[in-house]
Amino acid sequence: MAESDEFDVIVIGAGPAGENVAGRTAAGGLSTAIVERELIGGECSYWGCIPSKTLIRPGDVIAAAKRVPGAAEAVTGAIDVQAALARRDYMTSSWDDSAQVPWLEDTGIALVRGHAKLTGPRTLEVTSGTGTRTLTARKAVVLATGTTAVVPPIPGLAEADPWTNRGVTEMKEVPDRLVVIGGGFVGAEMAQAVRRLGASEVTVLEGGPHLLSREEPFAGEEVGKAFAAEGISVRTGVRATAVKRHDDGTVTVTLEGGDEITADQILVATGRKPHTDDLGLENVGLAPGKPVEVDTKLRATGPADNDWLYAVGDVNGLALLTHMGKYQARILGDVLLGKDIEDRSSRDVVPRVTFTDPQVCAVGLTEKQARERGLEVRVLTYATGGVSGAYTSGDGIEGTSQLVVDTSREVIVGATFTGPGVAELLHSATIAISAQIPLSDLWHAVPSFPTVSEVWLRLLEAYGL
Ligand SMILES: Cc1cc2nc3c(=O)[nH]c(=O)nc-3n(C[C@H](O)[C@H](O)[C@H](O)COP(=O)(O)OP(=O)(O)OC[C@H]3O[C@@H](n4cnc5c(N)ncnc54)[C@H](O)[C@@H]3O)c2cc1C
Ligand SMILES: NC(=O)c1ccc[n+]([C@@H]2O[C@H](COP(=O)([O-])OP(=O)(O)OC[C@H]3O[C@@H](n4cnc5c(N)ncnc54)[C@H](O)[C@@H]3O)[C@@H](O)[C@H]2O)c1
């Protein structure tokens, strides 16, 4: 049975980006519908940020305790894996989104369950088990459909039914041996989580020269060193040429050159592709299967005279991170409510934390990116462990704190902090970079003693202040 309905704003995808646009436009008085074909909350809540950080946390806490004499002696047993997995189940509500529905009802957002497909300007069809419903937007359609894992065309890989981010975050037991293809955010975080949850052999196969290829080279090298110290094997500059799942359930990866690695499970973590192949983009003059490019008002740049189609979050390919999708959603909500505002951060001021131990926390440009833009830069570094706040936190706290300074304006354009538990340090750099605070003013922002934030003081001294 076909129904028809009209709203001011229709958002496709109820992940963090979609939920936040809808929340803002509804709060501003625009009638708003949100369409979701799976779970309200999206990849982040059920197969991304939340379960991955929950699975990382037990190993992190134990590693932190082991750095502190007195506490270390109290760590006498292994992680209780069943309790850790039960905590993950609790944090994902066992992949049930019913607790999210009251929020939508309270904010007055109409929830339409099903798969949405654009049929023309401002119109879409939503197909579900109960039929097809046609929706029309008076003001805007917002694409917030996210991404899915890429499975590279390695012979035998798809047939081996590998884990992607979904399999690893949903795991019901910890594999004894895991091989991970891709040493980026997902591969590095989950390799260490699985090892610390009890796997005896974890091997990461990374095609590039070091782990975490998007970050400063020293960051991936430090994580690689820490991985080696805790028995995680990292092989860089390698290519898998074949994968085979055997009858006994084990899986063998063959590398260029002939080496073979056999494991109980394989995780593919080689990047993401946008959910745009089945969205009807061809009906509005856009190419399916690609990110939806947007301008600084989050408006899709493809269709001629476009004043109705927008894209936020992973699907626009700008910055595949929950907080950036939510930021874009806040900006777009305001744009749709008529405010004069635009996205200033999604291209050059993106904060990112890799929750490995050591953590890798970065914002803005790497040194290489800054130089490629023709900026005159000076790079300042200091040992993260070289301040009193690190000594008092425990033994063996290592890492690097680095600022990339644009010397012509004397402002910071990039910052990277590596070390255990340094994630909370990052926002100070995000503020300095987004507000373009001159170094001479930062000198008067005094870090407390004894905190790791004192690396700021040492870095500014290194500049000559
Ligand atoms: C393992 C892992 C760990 C991560 N950890 C972090 C982290 O710690 N911090 C961080 O910031 N980011 C992290 N991320 C990235 C983060 O998950 C994404 O950036 C975020 O989920 C993107 O939000 P989104 O709303 O754009 O898309 P999504 O969360 O992917 O949501 C999109 C929604 O749209 C729906 N949808 C798609 N197509 C249609 C359609 N045609 N009709 C109806 N509905 C549709 C989908 O079902 C989905 O619910 C992680 C990702 C992974 C894989
Ligand atoms: N803590 C976080 O914020 C967090 C955590 C996980 C994911 N994410 C987001 O999710 C996105 C996707 O993460 P991801 O790890 O899948 O992608 P990624 O782009 O971060 O890393 C993919 C890695 O796989 C390597 N690779 C690609 N093809 C390969 C091949 N055939 N063989 C070997 N190596 C190969 C690449 O060189 C790269 O290092 C990230 O870009 C990030 O935005 C964020």
From TrEMBL:
Keyword tags: FAD, Flavoprotein, Oxidoreductase
Limits of the FAD/NAD(P)-binding domain: 7-318
Pfam families, per the entry: Pyr_redox_2 (PF07992), Pyr_redox_dim (PF02852)
Family in the record: Belongs to the class-I pyridine nucleotide-disulfide oxidoreductase family.
PANTHER family to which the protein is assigned, alphabetical: MERCURIC REDUCTASE
Protein name: Dihydrolipoamide dehydrogenase
Protein source organism: Kineosporia succinea
InterPro entries associated with the record: FAD/NAD-bd_sf, FAD/NAD-binding_dom, FAD/NAD-linked_Rdtase_dimer_sf, Pyr_nuc-diS_OxRdtase, Pyr_nucl-diS_OxRdtase_dimer
Enzyme class: oxidoreductase
GO molecular function: dihydrolipoyl dehydrogenase (NADH) activity
